[in-house]
């Protein structure tokens, strides 16, 4: 395993870490025994950082992480998130009293004394402009309930707003071959300011595995079944905002990236790791095989400058115009 520093926190995290949305819920059927086996396997392979949220399975993924990391709390870092249990548009949702309650509830489920990285979970732009939530987080840090804090954002604009606060230590962004906009300004600026970058949806909801055909039907409780048009939450969280059919069409044009590499998925993850500004990727998983497949990215051949340019052109010429919603 390779490790990278999380901004200027002094914390080193595995460059391939894992997100736990899928094992919490909203990605189809789950099996706790299989989920715990997969978590154990990841830790055995050197993974020392996991991302979760209080709304993933209504806290269930936090509880699973507590079981998987029991006795290893000192060397397995956990990042969790808050705010989406309430009304994300209401300033009171970000008050000290509410955030402290969210934080203490997560600590109880995680069975920890402090949260390593506490993230605001895709708040509105207005909340970020107001900035009072950062004062609340500063207070929780002083109280020892959290060690560092960051923000999970939907757009480049929101990310740049967060960077204006010197105590924001990380940004969690949607970034993959289909979503390259952060490369232009956000990632260089974050690097300049010593802010870590966690990459979610590195495989664009599975599109960049290359395994789907346009006639595939997702399970009823899988957000890829019900959020393609952004009816439940931000459209960019599902298929990178491309829509399923367009995403499959575009992924078929990218099959070449797997040539000389482990797989299309490991190649797509490798492309992200080849960006020097990235701290870690946090792909999801539901079983041990998916963990192992994602870890293949570590050993996958890096992209040449020529290949990088080809993928940059592909994004600008074939992808960019089809992305729905602000990003």
Automatic annotation (TrEMBL):
Coiled coil: none annotated. InterPro entries: AKR, AKR2_Oxidoreductase, NAD(P)_OxRdtase_dom_sf, NADP_OxRdtase_dom. Pfam families: Aldo_ket_red. Gene3D superfamilies: NADP-dependent oxidoreductase domain (3.20.20.100). Residues 16-314 form the NADP-dependent oxidoreductase domain. GO terms for molecular function: oxidoreductase activity. This is Aldo/keto reductase.
């Amino acid at each position: 395993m390779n490790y990278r520093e999380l901004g200027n926190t002094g914390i080193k995290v595995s460059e391939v870490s894992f997100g736990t949305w899928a094992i919490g819920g909203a990605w189809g059927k789950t099996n706790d025994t299989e989920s715990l086996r997969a978590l154990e396997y990841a830790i055995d392979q050197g993974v020392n950082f996991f991302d979760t949220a209080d709304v993933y399975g209504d806290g269930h993924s936090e509880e699973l992480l507590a079981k998987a990391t029991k006795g290893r709390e000192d060397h397995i870092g956990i990042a969790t998130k808050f705010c989406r249990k309430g009304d994300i548009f209401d300033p009171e949702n970000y008050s000290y009293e509410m955030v402290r309650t969210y934080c203490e509830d997560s600590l109880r489920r995680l069975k920890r004394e402090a949260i390593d990285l506490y993230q605001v979970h895709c708040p509105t732009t207005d909340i970020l402009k107001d900035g009072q939530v950062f004062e609340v987080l500063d207070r929780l840090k002083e109280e020892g309930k959290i060690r560092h804090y960051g923000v999970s954002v939907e757009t480049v604009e929101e990310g740049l707003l967060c960077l204006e606060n010197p105590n924001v230590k990380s940004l969690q962004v949607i970034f993959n071959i289909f979503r390259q906009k952060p490369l232009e300004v956000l990632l260089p600026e974050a690097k300049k300011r010593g802010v870590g970058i966690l990459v979610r949806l590195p495989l664009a909801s599975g599109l960049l595995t290359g395994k789907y055909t346009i006639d595939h039907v997702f399970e009823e409780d899988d957000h890829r079944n019900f959020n393609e048009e952004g009816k439940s939450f931000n459209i960019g969280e599902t298929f990178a905002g491309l829509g399923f059919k367009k995403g499959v069409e575009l992924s078929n044009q990218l099959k070449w990236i797997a040539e000389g590499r482990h797989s299309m998925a490991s190649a797509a993850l490798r492309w992200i790791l080849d960006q020097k500004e990235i701290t870690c990727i946090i792909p999801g998983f539901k079983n041990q095989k998916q963990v192992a497949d994602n870890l293949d990215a570590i050993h996958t051949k890096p992209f040449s400058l020529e290949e990088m340019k080809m993928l940059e052109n592909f994004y600008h010429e074939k992808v960019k115009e089809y992305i729905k919603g602000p990003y």
